[in-house]
Amino acid sequence: MDTSTPTQVAVIGCGFIGLPAALLAVDAGHTVIAFDTDPDRVRRLLAADPYVPDVSAEQLQSALATGRLIPTGDPDALSGFDVALITVPTPTTGNRPDLSCIEAATKTVAAQLRPGATVILESTTYPGTTENLVVPILETSGLTVGRDFYVGYAPERINPGTPITELRSVPKVVAGIDDESRDAAAAFWSRLVDAVVLAPDIGTAELAKLIENTFRLVNISLVNELTRYARALEVNIWDALTLAATKPFGYMAFHPSVGAGGHCLPSDTRYLTWRIREATHTSALLIETAARINDEMPEYVAGRIVDGLRRRHDSLAGARVVVIGATYKPDIPDLRESSALKVAAALRGYRLHVTVVDPLVPGDDPPVVPDLTPERIADASVVALLVAHRDLDYSLIATGNYVFDACAALPPAPNIERL
Questions:
Q1: Would the pLDDT of 268 be above 80?
Q2: Residue 6 — very low, low, confident or very high, per pLDDT cuts 50/70/90?
Q3: Do 266 and 149 lie in a common domain?
């Protein structure tokens, strides 16, 4: 495949992964068919109304103005593509991988596949998915991989909150079903990003992506477990971690939190542990323990908040909790797998009156209010700061009667308790 000239690129799934990739491809001079099965997404794309936080209205307007970004929900519009990027979610169902989105997307691509085209899976998944699921579906087209078309795997490395301009500087891992497929996928991505890293094979690239996310979850869970025990040891965990971080080698800083959320860490780690159990009939003890610790953190945090209330009040009856932060990550309007919302749910299990405040994601489902007012702070039995958005009024939050600071965002004070 010659990627030195503009090509027609089909992006299947225009969410957190697909939409930035689509805009990178437009910037590189390609024509991009931005396909999504969600009619609302297509409508918003056509109106230059972004729903992904890392994409601005101006960027969408600019891409649409070129005439080379074509949002659609019509699979026939994919006809004649040169490169197809499959960028769909990979959720879990009952702790098992759910590949239904990849399967559906690949069938859509197979229906439009032509000789000489390249198909690249971007979604995070376990080793074997591309070769054992994607390739057989594509070959239902009557074409043969390696002879008639190319297949690659290039896992996403989206860091929510990172502008598209910075995304170009993130090295892109690329693998292929054979050398020709790897070269075709690498040639495409080399026009979009500054550096392409060639993987020896697809399975290795699939595992590498899972390692990246599992590494983070294991270390987050390690720090959160130490946070629980540090209190019993009468040690300030935040001070201990600050000291540890002064070591210039062999250490990477992680901080206590209410638990890792979002799609990548909790879900992707389950892909790895499931695949290990399937392949070896044994458990990945360290990884599964880390996942369990992460799952337990919201209940632990809720228990700490309730303990704090009990130390200050004779009864929990009538206690009012203001939870600040609903998203899974600061400054990102994304509620997927939000640990803060799980804390709020656990607090309601104690029959407390809970109000969740987050200016980034106000709405009714789940109930989240946008305004952090002096009255709301003054009336609260406890203010639980769970997500430290950049533009919160921290001086106001610090005036609460009892403040539980899970983010170490406030200075020490008698009324402030840190996680």
A1: yes
A2: low
A3: no
Q: How much is the pLDDT for 53?
A: 86
Residue 110 counted as domain residue: yes
Residue 210 placed within a domain = no
Does 231 lie in the same domain as 366? yes
Domain count, the chain: 2
> Is 6 or 223 the better-scoring residue by pLDDT?
223
Mean pLDDT of 125-149: 98
The token pair that represents 45 in the structure block: 């794309």
CB 135 within 8 A of CB 101: no
Could you say which of 14, 101, 264, 407 is catalytic? 264
* CB-CB contact of 109 with 101 (8 Å): no
Residues 292 and 399 in one domain: yes
For residue 101, indicate whether it is catalytic. no
Residue 76, both tokens: 């026939």
**CA 152/CA 411 separation, integer angstroms:** 50
Q: Are residues 135 and 274 in the same domain?
A: no
pLDDT at 104: 98
Q: What is the DSSP string of 91-138?
A: -EETTEE--HHHHHHHHHHHTT--TT-EEEE-S---TTHIIIIIHHHH
Residues 183 and 35 in one domain: yes
pLDDT score at 1: 52
Tell me if the pTM is above 0.70. Answer: yes
172, two tokens: 């892109």
What pLDDT was estimated at residue 266?
A: 84
Contact 155, 206 (CB under 8 A): yes
